Known about the structure:
alpha+beta, Ubiquitin-like (UB roll), five-stranded mixed sheet, 6 helices, 40% helix, binds FE2/S2 (inorganic) cluster
Amino acid sequence: MAYQLTINGQTHEVDVEGDMPLLWVVRDHLNFTGTKFGCGVAQCGACTMQVDGVATRTCVLTVANAVGRNITTIEGLQSPQARAVQAAWVELQVPQCGYCQSGQVMSATALLEQNSAPTDAEIEAAMAGNICRCGTYSRIKAGIHMAAAQLKNTGGAA
Ligand code: FES
Ligand code: FES
């Protein structure tokens, strides 16, 4: 069946089964491969995209349920918060192997879009669903604080 999806501000039509996870569609049918497959059961966060601005595990979101929603992948992140997160990630050399980091950046950006100055506890709560096997958690937390500080210093225009 054909489904129309709005991804990174553009409409894409795919002809797939309705119960196919959005992650599969985005990676295998639309070739946006920045988002990664980790566990497939909503436990690791590697597949995180923003759906209507909310960090969402797309390994368990069916394409049928993604219709009519604004979907953003790592390739389409453009907000000031996203740019601040990416700059902080580079500055602090947050990634190690990098596999989890697309999902980490998506969740960190969604957090800062909703909370411009999160505390350590708020960061831990927001990022709890994003697992990093390399253990980069302390740099992730520092990166979020750095991005928040940069956004504050520039009045939100990173
Ligand atoms: S692949 Fe979706 S949460 Fe792990
Ligand atoms: S950087 Fe390797 S899993 Fe997170």
